[in-house]
Amino acid sequence: MKEAAPKSSYELAMERLRQKDRESGAVERSATDEQKTAIAELRRVYAAKQAEREILHQASLRKAADPESLAALEEDYRRERERVSAERDRKIEEIRNK
Predict the structure, then answer these.
(1) Are the C-beta atoms of residues 70 and 78 closer than 8 Å to each other?
(2) Nearest one of 80, 90, 78, 98 to 42, comparing CA atoms
(3) Which one, of 81, 88, 92, lies nearest residue 46 by Cα?
(4) 8, 85, 89, 96: least buried by Cβ within 10 Å?
(5) Alpha carbon distance 19, 39 (integer Å)
Protein backbone atom coordinates (compact mmCIF):
# COMPACT_ATOMS: atom_id res chain seq x y z
CA MET A 1 0.00 0.00 0.00
CA LYS A 2 1.35 3.39 -1.02
CA GLU A 3 1.70 6.08 1.61
CA ALA A 4 0.15 9.45 0.84
CA ALA A 5 2.46 12.41 0.51
CA PRO A 6 2.56 14.72 3.53
CA LYS A 7 -0.01 17.48 3.41
CA SER A 8 0.94 21.13 3.38
CA SER A 9 -0.11 23.43 6.19
CA TYR A 10 -2.57 25.02 3.76
CA GLU A 11 -4.22 21.65 3.05
CA LEU A 12 -4.40 20.86 6.76
CA ALA A 13 -5.94 24.25 7.53
CA MET A 14 -8.52 23.82 4.75
CA GLU A 15 -9.45 20.38 6.10
CA ARG A 16 -9.96 21.85 9.56
CA LEU A 17 -12.11 24.66 8.16
CA ARG A 18 -14.23 22.20 6.14
CA GLN A 19 -14.68 20.06 9.24
CA LYS A 20 -15.73 23.11 11.26
CA ASP A 21 -18.23 24.04 8.52
CA ARG A 22 -19.70 20.53 8.52
CA GLU A 23 -20.07 20.61 12.29
CA SER A 24 -21.78 24.02 12.20
CA GLY A 25 -24.15 22.91 9.43
CA ALA A 26 -22.82 25.30 6.78
CA VAL A 27 -23.61 24.21 3.25
CA GLU A 28 -20.79 24.15 0.72
CA ARG A 29 -21.92 25.17 -2.73
CA SER A 30 -19.90 25.99 -5.77
CA ALA A 31 -20.50 28.92 -8.06
CA THR A 32 -22.41 28.38 -11.28
CA ASP A 33 -20.72 28.98 -14.63
CA GLU A 34 -22.71 32.20 -14.96
CA GLN A 35 -21.49 33.39 -11.56
CA LYS A 36 -17.89 32.44 -12.38
CA THR A 37 -18.08 34.43 -15.62
CA ALA A 38 -19.59 37.45 -13.86
CA ILE A 39 -16.95 37.32 -11.12
CA ALA A 40 -14.12 37.03 -13.65
CA GLU A 41 -15.46 40.04 -15.57
CA LEU A 42 -15.83 42.02 -12.36
CA ARG A 43 -12.25 41.21 -11.39
CA ARG A 44 -11.03 42.37 -14.83
CA VAL A 45 -12.92 45.66 -14.49
CA TYR A 46 -11.56 46.33 -11.04
CA ALA A 47 -8.01 45.35 -12.06
CA ALA A 48 -8.30 47.96 -14.82
CA LYS A 49 -9.55 50.54 -12.30
CA GLN A 50 -6.60 49.78 -10.02
CA ALA A 51 -4.17 50.08 -12.93
CA GLU A 52 -5.68 53.42 -13.94
CA ARG A 53 -5.35 54.73 -10.39
CA GLU A 54 -1.74 53.50 -10.26
CA ILE A 55 -0.89 55.43 -13.43
CA LEU A 56 -2.57 58.58 -12.14
CA HIS A 57 -0.80 58.18 -8.79
CA GLN A 58 2.61 57.85 -10.45
CA ALA A 59 1.93 61.00 -12.49
CA SER A 60 0.94 62.87 -9.31
CA LEU A 61 4.10 61.72 -7.56
CA ARG A 62 6.24 63.09 -10.37
CA LYS A 63 4.58 66.51 -9.99
CA ALA A 64 4.81 66.64 -6.19
CA ALA A 65 7.62 68.75 -4.81
CA ASP A 66 7.67 68.55 -1.03
CA PRO A 67 7.63 65.55 1.37
CA GLU A 68 4.27 66.53 2.92
CA SER A 69 2.47 66.45 -0.42
CA LEU A 70 4.15 63.11 -1.21
CA ALA A 71 2.92 61.67 2.08
CA ALA A 72 -0.60 62.99 1.43
CA LEU A 73 -0.60 61.52 -2.07
CA GLU A 74 0.54 58.14 -0.74
CA GLU A 75 -2.17 58.16 1.94
CA ASP A 76 -4.87 59.11 -0.58
CA TYR A 77 -3.70 56.39 -2.95
CA ARG A 78 -3.72 53.77 -0.16
CA ARG A 79 -7.25 54.75 0.90
CA GLU A 80 -8.49 54.69 -2.70
CA ARG A 81 -6.99 51.23 -3.30
CA GLU A 82 -8.66 49.93 -0.15
CA ARG A 83 -12.00 51.47 -1.16
CA VAL A 84 -11.87 49.95 -4.65
CA SER A 85 -10.86 46.55 -3.26
CA ALA A 86 -13.67 46.62 -0.70
CA GLU A 87 -16.17 47.59 -3.39
CA ARG A 88 -14.95 44.77 -5.63
CA ASP A 89 -15.16 42.22 -2.80
CA ARG A 90 -18.67 43.39 -1.87
CA LYS A 91 -19.88 43.02 -5.46
CA ILE A 92 -18.29 39.56 -5.76
CA GLU A 93 -20.07 38.50 -2.58
CA GLU A 94 -23.37 39.78 -4.02
CA ILE A 95 -22.83 37.69 -7.14
CA ARG A 96 -22.05 34.61 -5.07
CA ASN A 97 -25.16 35.05 -2.94
CA LYS A 98 -27.54 35.27 -5.92
Answers:
(1) no
(2) 90
(3) 88
(4) 8
(5) 27
Query: What's the CA gap between 21 and 53, in Å, rounded?
Result: 38
What is the rounded CA–CA span in Å between residue 35 and residue 38? 5
Q: At what angle do helices 67-97 and 33-63 cross, to 10 degrees?
A: 170
- Amino acid at residue number 74: E
**Sign of the C-alpha dihedral computed for residues 87, 97, 22 and 30 taken in this order:** negative
Chain segment 41-53, per-residue pLDDT in tens: 999 999 999 999 9
3-state secondary structure 12-74: HHHHHHHHHHHHHCCCCCCCCHHHHHHHHHHHHHHHHHHHHHHHHHHHHHHHCCCHHHHHHHH
Dihedrals phi, psi of 31, to nearest 5 degrees:
-75, 145
Q: Which of 45, 54, 50, 91 is nearest to 74 (CA)?
A: 54
